[in-house]
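Dear support,

I submitted the protein below through the web form. The confirmation email said the job was done, but the results page showed an empty box. After a refresh the structure appeared. I'm attaching both so you can tell me whether what I see now is the final result or a partial one.
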Amino acid sequence: MGAFSSLLNEHKEIQSRFNYSKEFLQKTVNSFAEYEGGNNKDVCVFAAGSLGRFETGQISDLDLFIVSREKINKLEEYKLFSDLIRLNKKLNLPDFSGDARYLKVHHLEDLISNTGEAADDLENQFTTRLLLLLESKPISNNLLYQESLDKVLCNYFRDSDGRKDFQPLFLMNDILRYWRTLCLNYERDRGKAKPWWKKNLNLKFSRKLTVFSTVLAIVSKKVSTSNDLVEFAQNVPWQRLALVLDHIDDNSLVEPFKRALDDYESFLAAKSHAELEEKEEETIEEFRNKAGLFGEFIYSALHSQKLDKKLVSHLAV
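What the results page shows now:
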C-alpha cells in the first residue's frame, strides 16, 4: 500500500464515514430486495450522490438512477417508481428531489448510442452515464450494473484496439464536459431558495474530487484500458485519488494531501448535521477558504513534474 492510501486509511473520521455509508448501502440493498422492483432481472438501480461517494451523513438523501437492459413499458415504470418511493419512506429519508421527477428508466443502449447527441442532454442520459462511471454503487441487480459499467466504458475505448499509446481523450473530454455542466448549473441556480454558497461548496469539494480524481488517473496513465477503468471505478473518489497519488509518487503532495483530508472532512461534518444552514458569514468564509485550498491541492497534483505534460495539456487544449 502506498503512502497516500495509508494516510487515507489512517484518517479516523473519513474511515468512520466510509463504514457508516457501507452499512447504510447494505441496509438499502436489503430493503429494496423485499420489493418486486428490487428483483427485476432486466433493471438495475444504482445510487449516486453522497452514498455513491461514501460520504453519507445523518441528513443525506437518496439519489437513485435506473438502467434497463430492454426498454420497458409505462406500467412497469410506474410499478418500479412506486417501489422506490416506498423504499425511500421505509428508510425515513427526505423525499426525492423535484417531486421525484428525476426518476427515469434509461435504456442501456441509449446511454451508449446517444453519447454526444441532442438526446444525451435532453433525456438526462449524459448525467446518468457520467454518474454511473464517477460515483455509483448498485442497489439492485449487480450483474446488470457491472455490464452497464463495462459497456459504457468500452464505448469510450472503442478506438484503442490494443494500442499501447492509446489515450482515452474521448472519455476525459466527456468528464470535463460534465464538470463544466456542473459549473453552469451552479450559476443557473444562484438566487434560488437553496443558498447558492452551499451549492458552491458542494461544487468545490465533492464534485471537484469526483471529477478530477478520475481525470488525474487518465493523465497519470494510471488507467490505460477499459478494464483498468472498470476496476478503478469500483473505488470511491477519495480512494481513487489516493491510488493515483500512490502511482505518481510525488512526495511534495503528502502534506497538502493531509490538509485536504482534514478540510474535506470538516466540510462533510458540518454538512451532515445541517450546520451549514446556520453558519455565520465568518464561518462560511472559513469553508470557502478551505475549499480554495482544496482546489489548489488538486491543481498542484495535476501539475506535478512527474506527469506527462503532453497529456496534461489536453485539459486546456
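Response: this is the final, complete result; the empty box was a page-load delay. The chain has a mean pLDDT of 90.
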